Amino acid sequence: MSGTATAEMLSAAELATIRADFPILAERVNGHELVYLDWGATAQRPRQVIDAEVDYVEHRNSAVHRGAHTLAAEATEEFEGARAKVAAFVGADEDEIVWTSNATEALNAVAYAIGNASAGRGGAAAARYRLGPGDEILATELEHHANLIPWQELAARTGATFRYVPVDDEGALRLDLLDGLLSARTRLFAFTHVSNVTGQVLPVAELTARAHAVGALVALDACQSAPHLPLDLHALGVDFAAFSGHKMLGPTGVGALYGRREHLTALPPFLTGGSMITTVTMEGAEFLPPPQRFEAGTQRVSQAIALGAAVDYLDAVGVDRIAAHEAALGRRLVEGLRAIDGVRILGPVGDGVERTGLAAIDVPGIHAHDLGQFLDSRGIAVRVGHHCAQPLHRRLGTTASTRASAYLATTPDEVDAYLAALPEAIEFFRRLA
Length: 433
Fold this sequence. Notes:
Blueprint: H1 12-20, E1 28-29, E2 32-33, E3 35-36, H2 47-59, H3 70-90, E4 97-100, H4 103-118, E5 136-140, H5 149-158, E6 161-165, H6 178-181, E7 186-192, H7 204-213, E8 217-221, H8 233-236, E9 240-244, E10 255-259, H9 261-266, E11 277-280, E12 285-287, H10 301-317, H11 319-338, E13 344-345, E14 358-362, H12 368-377, E15 380-381, E16 383-385, H13 390-395, E17 401-405, H14 412-432
Parallel strand pairs: 3-15, 5-6, 5-7, 7-8, 8-9
Antiparallel strand pairs: 1-2, 4-10, 9-10, 11-12, 13-14, 14-17, 16-17
Helix pairs in contact: 2-10, 3-10, 4-5, 11-14, 12-14
């Protein structure tokens, strides 16, 4: 993993200090101390993030970019300051970060902007983005539905062909097939940085270079990388990227779209209305430059400010150290799971496989939801279901899996508690069979 080879691990004392910042981690669930291993779905929030949002609401709450009074000016300054923090965190410029409600909205914003260009909107500047019959959109079989369905729908609206890179029987992406799938017809390649099911880290820079070599744009799902790995979108070279605040210690209801300046400047917007215009007449409108041209209506101001505080928190700990901490927990998790009879880990787990601190498992004969309920009775919170990745689960021969995911506040003892409870759950359900 980038940045983890020489990164100093979090000490036990540092980990204890971090955990003390998260009020919810002191909760008891079903009579047990909470063991929260569902960080990959939604990360818990430290007091610093909660306090930042409350402080803004109590003292500076106002409409941004709209008022001339003091509160409005202070709100706008803090709102744009949060944008600057998030941009620096992911290796982007401020005007390349568009606030969205979540990563799903961000990816749809790109898909619909390209669809609008394909319908003739945007004029000559947007012509290069137009899709039609004979063009192709490429994704992978690893994708979360949010980075799959928008492209399927875009293909259906424009007449383009949707294709995908398959995975092998273990769940590893078939990169050996990429040359046969990427061609001059490929206009966009959408793929995840880190699979939310297998935890595997894809070689983004390599895939981006190969896509650009045939003239294709790249849309990256960075939901599972932005919180967990050092991220430099400029260095990776992607054209678009999406991530969500609630996975990186921030609140729900806020995410971000990264777009290279040239693309955001040329593409017609997806949502239209107030705050994204320069001039409106009864015959038409002219739009602001990015990022405001993609931020119609009242924005999620307090949430963005809280996300800025989350970035401050992650920066203070050090993302490289967080990644090193997670890598160690991931190894502990995988090694422990491999030692439990009847457990199948989804995705490749061999030496040299880059993965984050999550693992999804299938136990034949026992439904994932049953395993999850048993673990919950012990106070252990994990994710069960298809994790919005039905095609990948179907390819791997299961309808659902049980996923444990770690983050900066996860302790080795919590991983061990999960590994100890899992055989008990398996034995319990086998006795019932």
